[in-house]
Amino acid sequence: MTETMPQANAEPLFKLIVKNPAGQLEEIQIAEGGRYFDPAAVLWDERDGKAITAEQAAALDAWRLELRKVETRAQRNALLRANVDTLSAMRWDAMAPEKKTAWQAYRQALLDVPQQPGFPDAVAWPPVPEGR
After folding, report:
1. Residue 62 — very low, low, confident or very high, per pLDDT cuts 50/70/90?
2. N or C: lower Cβ tally within 10 Å for the chain?
3. CA triplet 37, 41, 45: central angle to 5 degrees?
4. What is the distance between the alpha carbons of residues 48 and 104, in angstroms, rounded to a whole number?
5. Distance between CA atoms of 104 and 43, rounded to whole angstroms?
6. Using a CB cutoff of 8 Å and minimum separation of 24, what contacts does 59-63 make?
7. Are 59 and 67 in contact (CB under 8 A)?
8. How many CB atoms lie within 10 A of CB 56?
9. How far apart, in Å, do the first and last CA atoms of the chain sit?
10. Radius of gyration (Cα) for the chain, nearest Å?
11. Cβ atoms of 43 and 52 closer than 8 Å
């Protein structure tokens, strides 16, 4: 009996979540007969030392990009909670107009982080305004 090689676009039989050498979680899809590869469709992923198809490499890169976006947004949200959300209404009312303007600009700059050209890898974090 001769075994046939699966198509490179075979539906995954199951998925694994694994930790790579860098300590990051990754989702790996295993197709039926996944131990066979079309040599023309295999790449070497130097980041974690696994042989994967070009399609899998693209999917993994897209997944890693989304993960970095989530992590950067979480960092932005932590800055909003720590610096902006802690301004009480009484402090805000007593604040000088130029300080209010500075805090409003800071808040807006944090909200605009995902629209920066380098997002999520090269973010220019705005400086926290002086005084409260």
Report:
1. confident
2. N
3. 90
4. 43
5. 48
6. 59/29, 60/26, 63/26, 63/27
7. no
8. 20
9. 77
10. 23
11. yes
Report angle CA 115, 79, 103 to the nearest 5 degrees: 80
CA separation, residue 55 to residues 4, 60, 122 (Å)? 20, 9, 26
Amino acid at 123: V
What residue ranges do the domains of the chain occupy?
12-64
Which of 41, 26, 31 shows the shortest CA–CA distance to 10?
Answer: 31
| Residue 98 in tokens | 């130029």
CA dist., res. 94 & res. 40, Å (int) = 68
Instruction: Provide the residue count of the chain.
Output: 132
Model pTM?
A: 0.61
Which residue's structure tokens are 């932590």?
A: 78
Element (H, E) at 63: helix 54-79
Phi and psi for 96 in degrees, rounded to 5?
Answer: -65, 150
Give me 117's structure tokens.
């050209």
99-132 pLDDT per residue, tens: 999 999 999 999 999 999 999 999 999 999 987 7
